Predict the structure.
Amino acid sequence: MNARTFTVVSPKRKLHQAMVSAILIVGLSSCDAATDNEPVIADRDLPEASDGQRTLPPDDSKNDPNFRFARMALDCVNKQYPNKVSHVLNSGEDVKSPKQLYPAFYGCFDWHSATHGHWLLTRLWGQGAVSELDGEIEAALARSFTEENIAAERRYFLGADRGSFERPYGMAWFLQLMAELRGIEAQGGAKGEKAARFVEILAPLETTIVEKLKVWLPKLAYPIRIGTHNQTAFAFGLMLDWAEQGGDEGLAKLVRDKTLAFHRSDKDCPIGYEPSGEDFLSPCLHEADLMRRVLGKEEFSRWLSAFLPDIPEDGSSGWLKPGIVNDPTDGKLVHLDGLNLARAWALEGIISALPDDDARVPALKAAAAEHARSGLASVSSESYAGSHWLASFATYLTSRRGITAAAPEKQPTE
């Protein structure tokens, strides 16, 4: 039998150990609090809404989806945790909180969701769709869009080994945000003046992102045909809308040339293999939604016949079933709720580029309506796994952003 050694601790020593432990716990808690709650750039001089309170829906707007979507974005654009950080560490000094890394777009779980959350607010604010929330929205935008915050965001993008940060998805959503602000600026008035100031503040980050894209696009040898963030077709669509609205013919040409080189000869897209289990974008439909931006109607109609030859002409919707989500609290599985919304707007984009008497239009409309119903019904604040981003997809669909931002009719290409 092995001997067992016992250490007898005196009551006085026990008291000393307890005091030391208490001091350590308090000290560590203070360190955590200082790390998470220190007055970083994003917390300075926060403007308040008109009453300084969280606006509740008036009786006549309780069922207004726009109010609900805006409320969901307002509740997350400055919510730091939980957070999924995509971050390259070059040294111990890079170990920082999300708010310290990107003080403008740290909320809504990740950088790209924070970016399109700000786009959602900008879109509805500019449209006057949720006027009772204008004060809160302006406060949220002013909180994020400061010269200090955007300078820090730009420094992050320019950091070593961060060339692919949020490329292409988050970058494309940022350009969509800029396009939205410029559209509001062009409308004039008080909101136009505010939007113009935001554009001025955000412009340095916009320049950096566009420069990065112009370096990357010529090097891209193949399209990225997946149903998640790295897909090129969806991102190209947003980039092209921004470039053509803002007059950046250099980026517009790069995107158009790559689009035609990658996709002009595509045929028989295997849409029957969709969706994959974690898709929130459709490889087939978003490619078609991109191609309608670069081809004239007649040429696009012919291309679509080869690309998706099995679209029915009987007006049915069963040829494309909405994705099924078995657990909306699972951050990956809930992607399929977003897929239904994304498919709906892609289908509407395809319809917008076809002649009204095209025999495929009724079936495309039927599928779009079924996906929209399913997708919109899933937009809920019950689980943060979906609430931090689905409202942006819903707003993109219901406000027809991709269609209203589309380029003018193209001439057939040679």
The chain has a mean pLDDT of 88. Residues 189-216 form the longest helix (28 residues).
